[in-house]
Structures are given as structure tokens and as C-alpha cells.
Amino acid sequence: MKPEILEVQPLELKFTFELKKQSSCYVQMTNKTNHHVAFKIKTTNPKKYCVRPNAGVIDPNAPCEFEVTMQAPKVAPPDMISRDKFLVQSTIVPEGTQEEDVTSSMFAKEEGKIVDEKKLKVLLISPPGSPESSPKNEPLMVVHSSESRELKDEIIQKNNSHATVDESMKVSEVDGEREEVPKKEEFFERKEAVKKIEEPVKPSQEVAKRNEEFKQINNTDELILAKDVEEMKSKLKELESQLIEAKATILNLSEDKRSVAEEKHCLQGELEMVRSKKHRAQVGFPLLFVFMVGLVSFYLGHLLHS
Questions:
Q1: What residues contact residue 185 under an 8 Å CB cut-off, 6+ apart?
Q2: Quick check: helix, strand or coil at residue 115?
Q3: Inter-residue contact 71 to 50 (CB < 8 Å)
Q4: Could you give the dihedral angle defined by the CA atoms of residues 218, 220, 225 and 226, in that order, rounded to the nearest 10 degrees?
Q5: Which of 117, 174, 189, 207 has the greatest number of CB atoms lying within 10 Å of its CB?
Q6: Any idea what the Cα angle at residue 298 is, between residues 294 and 299, rounded to 5°?
Q7: Are 125 and 18 in contact (CB under 8 A)?
Q8: Which three-class secondary structure state does DSSP give residue 18?
Q9: What is the DSSP letter of 95?
Q10: What are the tens digits of pLDDT across the range 260-295?
């Protein structure tokens, strides 16, 4: 048997179930050791519940409390039975361990390491005053509305006949004493029977009313959901149109970039041609100048000799 590290109370989380309303409950934990104990709380349905705090460190022989909040439900589960469960894990840690140091790996089951686990169940409770939570002292028969009306009319007719007989009878005097011949106890008993017959009809009407409310809530939820879907579709269409425009803009920019690159390449080629022609002109000019100077010199020398 593993030693118990934490004492957890209660082991059943009770939530008052009401549509579109949150419900919370508190769980008390007590460290039963002389060491610091780290704890972590897990659940099978993390989207449905909020646990604060869901991890931490408890001082030796000290208590600690955490709160579990059930999110507002939209649909009632069948037979008001929840299959959600919670798991409270605990293990001994060194002194000085902080809440942010608690990780899931600390609760891995290894040889020589003690990990205590407590499983908690979830119970759904109807709110006070609802038909499901109202006590029933005696069993009631389920009678159809048509049958209950016929039986009610029959009993009322009998009661009326007894009432007329009671009113028509007189009180006789015997030796100065007044004696009432008939008694009206049967009338009240039959009246109580009528009430008992009417009682089963009321819960059925209340159930029908609640079913109508559930249908209205479901219809409103479906309308809201359909509206949200339509809004999402319109937003997706807008995003698609914007994406198409962005693609067209990117294509135009890429074409412009390519044309600019081609023009730049052409300009560079033309610039290279101009530079080569200029270089050739500079190389040819000195040779011509030397040739002309030599020709003029030769002519002048010929004139001087002659």
C-alpha cells in the first residue's frame, strides 16, 4: 500500500446544472506529510472546466483549496449523468520548489518515487425549485388528459349529488339535542382524490413547457450559428477577392521589374558601345595628327632645299 500524501475532500464534484449558467465548487486538500508536496490537477474534458490553481506546492501539514468552474452548458446531457472525471496527482518535492517549477514530468511513476493519485467524479444537480429536484412524498399515477377530465367530471357530478342531498336533509331534535344525520367527510375525500388526479397533469405540462423552452433555445442557437456561418462565408469571400487582387498586383510588379531589367540591360549595352567608339576615336586621332605633321614637315623641307 502506498502512503497517502494528500487528503482530498470531497471526492465528488457537485455542480448545479442550469443552461447558459456557470457553476463552481471547491475542493479541500490537506498535506498529511512533514515534507513539501507538489500537486497537479488533470481532467478528461479540459475545454469544459476551469481549475484555479491547477498546480502548486503545499507546505508540510498545511491545507490548500482549489476551485473548479464548469462553463455554461448549452445542451443538457442524457439523464443528467456526466462522465467527466478529475485526477489529483501529488508527490514530495524539495523545500524551495515554486509553483512555476511544477511540471508533468515530476509526477512520472518511477522506481523509488511516491506519486499519490486521487480520482474525482462529477455529479450534476438540478437547481432548487425545478421539477426534477422537488420531493415526491407519494407515487402519482400518470393519467392522460382526456381520461383525467372524464374521471374528474364523474367525481364532481357525484359530489354535487351528495351535496344536494346533504343540503335537503334537515337536522332532527332528539330529547333537546341536535343531531346531524349526514357527514361531509366523503365529499372532502373525493375532493382530495380530484386533486391527486390533477397533480400528475401539472408536471407533464411543466415538462412540455420546458421542452418548448429547450426547442426555442436550440432554435435561437441554430439561428445564431447560421448567422455566424454566413458572416464567416462573406469574410472568406472578401479575403479571396483581396488575395486575387494581391496576386494580380504581384504579377504586374514582376512584369514591371522584368521590363525595367531589360531596359537596364539595353542601356548598359548601348553605353558599352559608346565607350568603345570613343576609345577608338581617341586612339586614331594621334596617328592622323602625326601623319599630317610629318607631311607638312616633308613639304617645308622640300621648299627649303629648292
A1: none
A2: strand
A3: yes
A4: 110
A5: 117
A6: 120
A7: no
A8: coil
A9: T
A10: 888 888 888 888 888 877 666 555 556 777 778 888
